[in-house]
Specification:
The two termini are 18 Å apart. The protein folds into two domains: 155 residues, Ribosomal Protein S5, domain 2; 117 residues, GHMP kinase, C-terminal domain (Alpha-Beta Plaits, 2-Layer Sandwich). Strand 1 and strand 2 form a beta hairpin. The longest helix has 16 residues. 44% of the residues are buried. The strands form two sheets. Strands 1, 2, 3, 4, 5 and 6 form a six-stranded mixed β-sheet that branches. Strands 8-9-7-10 form a four-stranded antiparallel β-sheet, with helices on one face. Helix 7 crosses helix 8. It is an alpha+beta fold and 298 residues long.
Length: 298
């Protein structure tokens, strides 16, 4: 039985970002979504959620980015969804500190929602399985189920089918955020059948990851079917990519629907050299690395 007693101490938890090591768009579904085949990798760039006791049935949020501190935030929607699904009405006040750029292609909002489900499951003593939490997460957004598990995964369908893969072999990642926000729906609206891909790039990456090896870190092996649209529609993204290539990057890929770019690096020296070039152009940057899967049980 789930707990009916409110927790007496706060609970802090981190919500990681992700990159898309590959993103194949296979076609459009009858429901209006697109069929995807993608390798998601969670990375060491986090938002932080703090859960505090609150009166019974009360759900509220404070965010250090005021525009996100509303009832529309996926964190609040996740809490209310869990209340409806379990009948538990223990109150919670959430404080959200954002580090993951919004509308950046890094999955920050989806990760916050998944992390809220995980946190409340523990904090409220609900005992729900990760499978059930992923089912609930799918009601909130296509990317939410992945973040229940984290690590490295093959994500298919519209995002609801998640197959865990071995953790990605170690490497450094330079993350670069151009000064623009890209709404995901716009990119998908502009995608035509000519931009659909076969999924071969993703399948090849799965084979490498299952063998425990790094794939060739090139633009031909790390593919994003949405990238050409973003480069054409948003000059800031194209300029940031050119900056990194001019500085010596052999592979620069966009994550998700953008605009954030990532550069896989085999040494920290390489990552820092490229980071300096990006900073000199006024770009927001992080040097980070892939994370293992969450320890969440079944």
């Amino acid at each position: 039985m789930p707990s009916t007693h409110p927790p007496d101490r706060p609970y802090f938890i981190q919500a990681p970002a992700k990159i898309n090591l590959s993103l194949d768009v296979l076609g459009k579904r009858p429901d209006g979504y697109h069929d995807l085949a993608s390798i998601f990798v969670s990375i060491a760039l986090w938002d932080t959620l703090a859960l505090w006791p609150a009166p019974t049935g009360s759900v509220s949020i404070f965010c250090d980015q005021a525009a996100l501190g509303t009832d529309d935030n996926l964190v609040i929607r996740a809490a209310r969804l869990l209340m409806r699904a379990t009948g538990v009405e223990i109150g919670v006040r959430v404080e959200l500190r954002k580090m993951i750029p919004t509308q950046g292609g890094l999955g920050g909002g989806s990760s916050d929602a998944a992390t809220m489900l995980l946190a409340l499951n523990t904090w409220w003593g609900l005992g729900l399985s990760t499978t059930r939490l992923a089912e609930l997460g799918a009601e909130l957004g296509s990317d939410v189920p992945f973040f229940i598990f984290g690590g490295t995964a093959l994500v298919e369908g519209r995002g609801e089918r998640v197959q865990q893969l071995p953790d990605l072999a170690p490497l450094w990642l330079l993350i670069v955020k151009p000064p623009v926000a890209i709404p995901t729906p716009r990119i998908f609206r502009e995608l035509t059948a000519a931009g659909y891909t076969t999924g071969a790039a993703t399948r090849a990456l799965v084979a490498h990851i299952q063998a425990g090896t790094l794939p060739p870190l090139t633009d031909t092996t790390l593919v994003n079917a949405l990238e050409p649209i973003a480069l054409s529609a948003y000059p800031d993204v194209a300029a940031a990519q050119a900056c990194l290539r001019d500085a010596g990057a052999t592979c620069v890929r966009m994550s998700g629907s953008g605009p954030t770019l990532y550069v896989p690096c085999t040494t920290l020296i390489q990552a820092e050299d490229l980071q300096r070039a990006a900073i000199n152009k006024g770009l927001q940057t992080w040097v980070t690395y892939p994370l293992p899967a969450r320890s969440t049980g079944s």
